[in-house]
Amino acid sequence: MRTFITIILLILVVVGGILTYQRWQALNSFDKPQGNSIVFGNPHGTVTIVEYLDFTCPHCPVVHKVLWEAMKGDTRVKLIMRPFPLLGGNSEPIARMVFAASKQGKMEEFAKVLLANHQNLDMVTIRTYAAQVGLDILQLEADVEESDVRGTVAAAIGSARAMGIAAVPTYYFNGKKFMPEEGVPTVGDFKHMINEAERRTLDETE
Q1: pTM
Q2: What range does the domain containing 99 cover?
């Protein structure tokens, strides 16, 4: 009996260690572009915003639009968009289509079109949007099934879960978490968070 309990305890310790290491990895890499990351703004900006979103989430595009307005013309900001297909349905297929678009150099453009037309994201209409941005639909549909695209989406999901994210949209401003739980933040709110993120970073380097 004691041997059995010892084995169980060892298993729990090992599992706990693995989970801790996975979270450590997530904390040390979540704000860095990985693989087919969707990156907007200045790639060398001093303020890194990581945005976890689901393209089928009705709230995500609304908040993203305000953030985009706040970022406009601000060369300090690098935005890393991480699709996190949380809501089921077409969430994961759409995320895979966005990452697959990178193979044709259209990922950022395709993501922006989907966010701008979030009210109508059935798969037929999405193919229309894909054609509008110049994607080869047959190639896109083939690339969606590729193991590297599936792996990229799985990695994005794993990153979000390791960070303890359970709702979208969720943001990190130079590592500080922000969840717009009550209403939609204003442009001024986001500008303030950008300024605060830069100030914190400067304070830490002094």
Answers
A1: 0.80
A2: 36-192
